Amino acid sequence: MKDADPQGPVSFVANVGRLPQKGLPVVIDADERQRAALATEHELLSVERYRAELLVAPWKRNGVKVSGRVEADLTQACIVTLDPVAAHIDEPVEALFLPEQSKLGRQGFEGGGEIVLDADGPDSPETFSGDTIDVGALAEQFFGLAIDPYPRKAGASVEVADDAKPAESEFQQKLRSLLGKS
């Protein structure tokens, strides 16, 4: 019997209770088992390489800033031909975290403060409890968002018939004749 693993394939829990001022560097180089799990999790044919280089640093008073990059080489199935399509991901990672009890996180929602969201700006801080953050799961989120949802092999296209209307089935022809429409 296999144990249920609630954590993702590249989970890396960083203790943020006492971070060095210059930050805590974290490097995640996925092994073969982790890459296979990533491929399954994200419905890919394979993940040949996965590496996340992150810096977990103090931010403001009690917050945490995670920044870095996630790089990967992967193979997906073409949406037209189902042939393998190679892809490379090189995605910046940046996120802010505040403790659940942080005043800074509650200010905008309580006391009539305004929250200004800029679509192109940084995301608003997420909250965390305790003194750990799964920075591996964070990097995997950025990896997942960078995957092309519609991979297409070079030159592959969906053929469209010359006629605008698709051919009618026998059932559709009978139905049309019964309804008296031509």
Automatic annotation (TrEMBL):
One family name in Pfam for this protein: YceD
Protein name per Swiss-Prot or TrEMBL: DUF177 domain-containing protein
